[in-house]
Amino acid sequence: MTSGQARALDQLWPKFGLDFAAGPIDLKAIFGRDAPLTLEIGFGNGEALAARAAAEPERDFIGIEVHRPGVGRLLNGLETQSLDNVRLVSHDAVEVVNGMLPPASIDQVLIYFPDPWPKKRHHKRRLIQPAFLAALARVVKPGGRLELATDWEDYALHMLETIAASPDFTNAAGSGNFAERPPYRPQTRFERRGLERGHGVRDIILIRT
């Protein structure tokens, strides 16, 4: 962690940060308005989240990330760009979704390039699992979207298999199909690095039934 990131965590967290709460939070009070809400889980260094927030000021955003240097970096970016439509949570995403977010409160969930846990014995640690899809279904509004992207083929196939068994989401591109990359999804340095290594990027878009 750089000194600038540490300083941002200390000075800017009260402005942009949300401490974990065991009960549902009041989103309208937090943002001071009732606007469409996007949740990004695992925003990394925040590059994509900041770009979306700047391009869509009419929408509010919540980002979840446990990697503190990435949180600090994004805090600096939010302050520099005066992005008041973003709030950050630095806590386990499963606990945040299960305990902190009100039912049917989210219009769009973004999970871009989650840890693929490539070794077979670690597959159970992958975020996209039946129990987590059920938890997301509780907080996503009917007709809301869950958007996934990965550059790991095995994980992409695992996602499709898990989705097919979910009663709560349907594949917008049709069962077993990948989607076109949404034009609003920024291409990050992480993604470009994967493409340079020959990794194919696959998008999946789901609709809450």
Following the backbone from N to C, one meets helices and strands in this order, namely HHHEHEHEHEHEHEHE
Helix segment tally: 9
Could you list the spans in which at least 5 consecutive residues all have pLDDT below 50?
none
Q: Tell me the structural class.
A: alpha/beta
**Which strand order does the major sheet show?**
3-2-1-4-5-7-6
Mean pLDDT: 95
Shape: globular
Strand content: 15-25%
Distance between the termini: 41 Å
Q: Characterize the biggest β-sheet.
A: 7 strands, mixed
Rg: 17 Å
What is the share of helical residues?
Answer: 25-40%
Number of strands: 7
Give an overview in words.
By secondary structure, this protein is an alpha/beta fold. The chain contains 9 helices and 7 strands. A 7-stranded mixed beta sheet has the order 3-2-1-4-5-7-6, sandwiched between helices. Helix 1 packs across helix 5. The chain starts with a helix and ends with a strand.
Q: What topology does this entry show?
A:
Blueprint: H1 3-11, H2 13-16, H3 27-31, E1 37-41, H4 47-55, E2 60-64, H5 68-81, E3 86-89, H6 93-99, E4 106-112, H7 130-139, E5 140-150, H8 153-164, E6 169-171, H9 189-196, E7 202-208
Parallel strand pairs: 1-2, 1-4, 2-3, 4-5
Antiparallel strand pairs: 5-7, 6-7
Short description, anyone?
It contains 9 helices and 7 strands, in the order αααβαβαβαβαβαβαβ. The protein has helices at 3-11, 13-16, 27-31, 47-55, 68-81, 93-99, 130-139, 153-164, 189-196, and strands at residues 37-41, 60-64, 86-89, 106-112, 140-150, 169-171, 202-208. A 7-stranded mixed beta sheet has the order 3-2-1-4-5-7-6, sandwiched between helices.
